[in-house]
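A.,

Following up on our hallway conversation. Structure tokens first:
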């Protein structure tokens, strides 16, 4: 990892919001997350199909092993709902940190998924805002997300997190970003 990365951008830490905890991912989360992510409708815009527990464990193991590129950091969290009768996992957020160009500092590409039963309650926006705030506090001035042009709910989450749509389309998705604050 380049020395220009702050240590805090190498390892995810617990992030707390009003109702949620963003908990650093562990392989053991696959057991509960397989059920959270089981709805095929979650794949409407991103493609693929839900993973079972075994496949999800394997994916989490690969994610936790880190990027094969030493200049890139993979940070992954599960989203845990603290309020209600029992705390439960409701989704995931992630950030891929890449070196910045010049004085811009590193760029964080973010993504979020909230399980179907918990959608429509603001959890995606709350977790994305918490993640973006944490990234900015830890010296990632540029944050990017890619959103399918027909995914209005995800576009609303990106906007709530302080990102703005650009004219750039990559792999059929609109690039949303926040520029470095200067």
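Then the amino acids I'd put at each of the 182 positions:
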């Amino acid at each position: 990892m380049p020395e220009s990365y702050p240590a805090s951008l190498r390892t995810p830490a617990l992030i707390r919001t009003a109702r949620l905890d963003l908990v650093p991912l562990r392989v053991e989360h696959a057991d509960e997350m397989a059920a959270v992510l089981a709805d095929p409708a979650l794949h409407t815009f991103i493609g693929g199909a839900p993973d079972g527990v075994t496949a999800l464990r394997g994916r989490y193991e690969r994610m936790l092993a880190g990027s094969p590129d030493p200049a890139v950091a993979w940070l992954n969290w599960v989203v845990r709902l603290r309020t209600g009768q029992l705390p439960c996992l409701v989704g995931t957020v992630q950030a891929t940190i890449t070196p910045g160009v010049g004085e811009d500092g590193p760029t964080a590409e973010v993504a979020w998924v909230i399980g179907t039963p918990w959608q429509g309650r603001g959890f995606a926006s709350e977790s994305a805002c918490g993640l973006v705030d944490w990234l900015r506090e830890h010296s990632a001035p540029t944050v990017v997300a890619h959103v399918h042009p027909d995914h209005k709910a995800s576009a609303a989450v990106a906007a709530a997190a302080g990102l703005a749509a650009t004219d750039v389309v990559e792999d059929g998705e609109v690039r949303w970003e926040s520029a470095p604050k200067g």
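The chain has one domain: 7-178. Curious whether your intuition agrees with the design.

B.
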